[in-house]
Design goal:
The protein has about 325 residues and is α+β, with helices and mostly antiparallel strands. The chain is about 20% helix and about 25% strand. It has helices spanning about 40-50, 85-90, 130-135, 200-215, 265-270, 280-285, 285-290, 295-305; strands at about 1-5, 10, 15-20, 35-40, 55-60, 65-75, 80-85, 100-105, 115-120, 140-145, 150-155, 155-165, 170, 180, 250-255, 255-260. It has a six-stranded mixed sheet. It has a four-stranded mixed sheet with strand order 11-12-9-14. It is rod-shaped. The protein starts with a strand and ends in a 16-residue tail after the last helix.
Amino acid sequence: MQFFDGYGYHGTSFEQTYRCYPASFIEKPQIESGDKIIMPPSALDRLASLHIDYPMLFELRNDAAERVSHCGVLEFIAEEGMIYMPYWMMENMILQEGDFVRVKNVTLPKGTYVKLQPHTTDFLDISNPKAILETTLRNFSCLTTGDSIMVAYNNKKYYIDIVETKPSHAISIIETDCEVDFAPPLDYKEPEKPVVPVPLNKAPAQVQEDPAGKEPKFNPFTGVGRRLDGKPMQTQFAPASSSGSKDKQPDTSNGRAQPSAGSTSQTTARQSQGKLVFGSNVNRAPKDTQKEAPKDSKQEQSQKKEEPKFQPFTGKKYSLRG
């Protein structure tokens, strides 16, 4: 630790507070493309007496904004109590002209990996951005995680964030092979996935399926019955059930309803299944139906009076001979 009393340095290491100014004050535009600063000659005298490691690397600290960065040194020609630094470094550390900054010598490990993230996609539009970056980094001595460096190319400035560095948060990139990786730019937007249109033929297919399920079921043996003799039907037939096992079909013979019960067990089993039975037992009517026969005949007679009698095989006769 050392202190500056206005006349010299005291201590075993170099650490001093200076007022910072941009490099344009001394007409040194070349330092804008790197990370090197210009220090006063007294700093060189002190550093030489400490026998520090080369290349000289320094830690810059802005206590007011709590920002820390690292840099190298280009020359020792500044006025006492002042340092000159690239303007992009002052922006990175939130420093104004004449602000105080602490400078301390440090030793940094050689970098093996660095991850960079451009601010805009314009940097990737350069024909060979890696070659431009390699050329620019030759003017840099070290990199610090969290810094935003500036790359000048074709009269345009590109800012790049230092996202990650290995093996430490601050590394030296002098005479070392360092792997460089790129993160997507800050303003990069992933292309939207195209929406797959729904085929129009699917919607009608669904509509066609619904009516198919609502179609009426087929009911056999339904409709209007007619007699050959022209007499009206006395009974109406109920529609057959689709299940066939629950509803029983009425048996008819000559237009009159017949009971479903038979004299044999086979006939009963058939009728319980809801099937039409054609046999001798169908014509056999129980006593109850025989008693009701006169009533039916009376009804038929009343209807005969009301309606004209149907006479088959009537009409004029013609001969083929003429």
